[in-house]
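Progress report, Aim 2. The chain analyzed during this reporting quarter is listed below.
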Amino acid sequence: MNLAEVIAIRKLIKDYGNLRAVDGIDLSIQKGEVYAFLGPNGAGKTTTVEILEGLRPRTSGEVEVLGLDPWKDNKKLIRQLGVIPQDFKFFDKITPKEAVAFYAGLFGKRADADAILKKVRLEDKASDRYETLSGGQKQKMGLALALVNEPAVLFLDEPTTGLDPQARRSIWEVIRSLRSEGRTVFLTTHYLEEAQLLADRVAIINHGKIVATGSPEDIIREHGRSEVLSLQAPPKLADYLRSKLDLPVRAEDHTVDVELNSNEDVLRVLTLVQQSGIPWTGVSTRQDTLEDVFIRLVGKTTESGDVGPASLGGAK
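Predicted structure tokens for the chain:
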């Protein structure tokens, strides 16, 4: 493990009897990264995370978190990690300020509850009972508790699931601030937009294997389709364009899509559209998102009827 590498996985395998849940994966995560770990149900995502957190032994391979073996050195490592499980819950009658003090006692630390709650934008609810907090405020309280021991690495499991858009964006701001402090955030999420906006790098796991890794932009560039010019027009426009262009043209539901190779193609296509005399209305261009690529990559491995691409959350 090099000095900047905080999580290192080499040829990790996890078997449950005859089932291989994690099949020889490699990952390297650097200090200060937000790293998104994505996968459909049953992909091996949760198993991998639990191995990293020291909750589950591996079958074989090498795993280091902060230079420690998560299973063998769990007691030493756990004091350097912050963890928010999916569907975080706490005692109904406790306040965020009391909860921070309680956690600090468990870790044997003297924590500044006011400063921690301010960091997660929850200082105005410091004295409110947990049961009265909104979903987003409860997640912020979970973040506050994860920060009590001043962790170098945080594992955030679906931290914005079920939250409204405003609450999600508030959590995003906190995650960005943690990265600016040099903390490493290992994020699992089924919101692909969230991963694309927040993550420095992404790994996509399916059937226990890593099928793509890199920055969101790199993954989209490598696995995505070309930019598309889309017109609201009848199918006969697609027939006309096919006769004039060497570009892929598709027609569906009164929409004509043309895949572009370069910016110059936009002018070429629009000139032909005008020359066709065929009526059309709206025009726009679009590129694949991380979600488009995710579904395409996962879908490629599901043609035999294994795991489908529609379900992204709760992977094991």
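Residues 301-315 have pLDDT under 50 and may be disordered. The radius of gyration is 24 Å. These observations will guide the mutagenesis work planned for the next reporting period.
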